[in-house]
Amino acid sequence: MTAKKNAQIVLNYHPAVDDTPSEDVLGYEECPYPTLTKEGEVIVKTVYLSVDPTLRFAMNANLVPYYLKPWKPKQVVYGIAGVGVIVESKDERFSKGDVVMSKVLNWPWKAFFTEQGDNTRKIDPRVTNGKLSVLLGLLGISGMTSYFCVREKGNIIKGAGQTFVVSGAAGSCGIVAGQIARLDGVGKVVGICGSQEKCRYLTDELKFDAAIDYKTDNVKEEIRRLCPNGVDIYFDNVGGEISRIVIEQVS
Question: Which of 43, 70, 74, 105 could form a disulfide with 64 if both were Cys (CB 3.0 to 4.6 A apart)?
């Protein structure tokens, strides 16, 4: 019988803290196929991985936040979330073919891996009409972040003509935040992003009222032009100079 194959992504080395990681920071290698050794375990086949900006911190042990598992050289790396399918089970709660996600913020970047059933959550694929990647975006951590930030902290007053500005507007949080703000009744939604293509996507597809390309536009001048009465609500995804400029224009 031909041995089953498996593969994983490993950290080759820690990049310098202030450097942009190069492609060789991560490596691809074959690894043993997992086995079930005790009751309550399942083998999961990875279908989708969530690649999140915060994983940059996991590359360096002195930067990693409490909720991430630090990446160690020559070992498999872990992401925040993923979507998989059960291929083998010794847990009566799970059957082959079940779609699952993890209950904890640790998903190994492996094609196949063993997990505890207690750490695994079964998902009904009908929730997303079979589009499982939605579980990592709109219905995942980024979507929930946007939903609760806008709904719980945005202080949107429907019909008051408020101006809502979002940085990182073409990212997974930004695109959801801007659309929720529009649905909740703000007067204007302005997105800040990093290319003309993204600007067109925001205005043409997502129906933002305006978009600013921070790489080619003068952000301060554009914010003043598009928000003549100031910025009422700012959804910040980036910090730094862009956020300083926007915050200076908050009404």
Answer: 70
